[in-house]
Design goal:
Bound molecules: 1,4-dihydronicotinamide adenine dinucleotide, 2-oxoglutaric acid
CATH class of the largest domain: Alpha Beta
Number of helices: 13
Mean pLDDT: 97
Helix content: 25-40%
Structural class: alpha/beta
Number of strands: 16
Strand order of the largest sheet: 8-7-6-9-10-11-12
Order of helices and strands: EHEEEHEHHHEHEHEHEHEHEEHEHEEHE
Distance between the termini: 15 Å
CATH architecture of the largest domain: 3-Layer(aba) Sandwich
Radius of gyration: 25 Å
Length: 389
């Protein structure tokens, strides 16, 4: 029985992937083998000795201490693209909210009614304060052309916008999905200097943290409208408050409100609703649960952010799953040990991702725990699992 701990509310469709005869799932299991999480902050989380995998039902993994997981041989999964449509739809809404003062206008109407005014009369008099421009004919800069950015860029062309996209690491898949109408910007300056609207779709990393700061906003057009459905830390809040106050930034729509940014003029704050649709919650939960299940049961890795993709058909009685440092001699050490113990390899795959590697060895006979223990003791080995078919 595998024990799975949930750190956030996970859609029942995902939980149903983990059948009750093999998995015990709850928010209070101890010594868990796996974790299902959405946005809970895990940076201070004490890993159980048993913990083998964390599946993030979503895209961003900045809430998970990835380096600490890799060192401990814990596989971290996410669910690429599973919530992209939900975020794209909210991005369209955010573009409109950045323009048309819809939220401010709606709040004003309610306060008028609350103050006893004849709403039908005052709206016609008061509406001029909520005028805002149309999207059609304006320039949009999309920073980050991954699962979400590509969809936002493509749909914005259909709204009549001229779209520039910037992504120095554009994947082949993303390039193939990108509309021919979207212009590739080769640097951020092109986006900053030319765009009326800028929308962020990059992960929050040490490189992207605070990228929208005083220097960046200095290059932007006066009255630019900025949309951040990616992560709060991408924007320097102090610099943004100054830019909002001066009118340099005409509107800032963020899915990541905090007490400071809420003080700003023309801030539209959304309570992290980007992926909050039943469809997206279900897609993410199902994908995350499937990834966790396949890893715990078969050692297969798909969509991990810290380890390589490795899916191998079973071809023996026992399977050794070895997470180790990606260093010369690691595989020779493993196979040397197996041959010393008289273990015949039926099938073996090794893949690497940056500093870490994963080796799966299928053997025809049942392997003893002693062999797994010997491999575990090798230099650079982070985690060894022995699975029997
Ligand atoms: N508001 C919400 O509820 C949600 C927020 N997100 C956020 O959106 C981010 C993007 O999500 P996806 O598009 O699904 O991820 P993705 O991994 O498919 O795309 C991210 C893209 O950003 C690019 N990138 C990385 N560093 C860059 C840089 N310095 N400059 C320009 N491009 C850069 C990558 O090459 C990649 O193409 C996530 O990391 C997450 O933080 C994602 C889903 C829901
Ligand atoms: O689970 C959620 O609602 C948040 C989604 C998100 O921020 C992400 O996928 O990166």
């Amino acid at each position: 029985m595998f024990r799975i701990k949930t750190l956030n509310k996970i859609s029942p469709a995902g939980l149903s992937v983990l059948d009750q005869t093999r998995f015990s799932v709850s928010d209070d299991v101890e010594n868990e083998d796996g974790i299902l999480v959405r946005s809970a902050d895990m940076h201070e989380y004490q890993f159980s000795d048993n913990l083998r995998a964390i599946a993030r039902a979503g895209a961003g993994t900045n809430n998970i201490p990835i380096d600490r997981c890799s060192e401990a041989g814990i596989v971290v999964f996410n669910t690429p693209g599973a919530n992209a449509n939900a975020v794209k739809e909210l991005a369209v809404c955010a573009l409109l909210m950045a323009s048309r003062k819809i939220t401010a206008g709606a709040e004003w109407v309610r306060t008028q009614a609350g103050a006893g005014a004849d709403v039908e009369k005052v709206v016609e008099k008061g509406k001029s304060q909520f005028v805002g421009p149309e999207l059609s004919g304006k320039m949009l800069g999309v920073i980050g052309l991954g699962a979400i950015g590509v969809q936002v860029a493509n749909i914005a062309t259909k709204l009549g916008m001229t779209v520039f996209g910037y992504d120095p690491f554009l994947s082949v898949d993303a390039a193939l999905s990108l509309s021919r109408l979207v212009h590739r910007a080769m640097d951020l300056e092109t986006i900053y200097k030319n765009c009326d609207y800028i929308t962020l779709h990059v992960p929050q990393t040490p490189e992207t943290r605070g990228m929208i700061n005083e220097d960046a906003m200095h290059m932007m057009k006066g009255g630019v409208r900025i949309i951040n459905l990616a992560r709060g830390g991408l924007v320097n809040d102090d610099d943004m408050l100054v830019a909002l106050e001066s009118g340099k930034v005409a509107a800032y729509v963020t899915d990541f409100p905090n007490n400071k940014i809420l003080q700003g003029k023309n801030v539209v704050a959304i309570p992290h609703l980007g992926a909050s649709t039943p469809e997206s919650e279900e897609n993410c939960a199902v994908m995350a649960a499937q990834e966790l299940k396949d890893y715990l049961e078969n050692g297969n890795i798909k969509n991990s952010v810290n380890l390589p993709t490795l899916v191998q058909e079973w071809s023996g009685e026992s399977r050794l799953c070895i997470i180790h440092k990606n260093v010369p001699g690691a595989i020779a050490n493993i196979t040397g040990l197996l041959s010393k113990d008289g273990v015949n390899v039926e099938n073996m795959t090794n893949k690497s991702k940056k500093e870490y590697a994963y080796t799966v060895v299928d053997v025809g006979t049942r392997v003893s725990q002693t062999v797994a223990d010997e491999i575990r003791a090798l230099d650079g080995v982070c985690r060894v699992r022995l699975l029997n078919h």
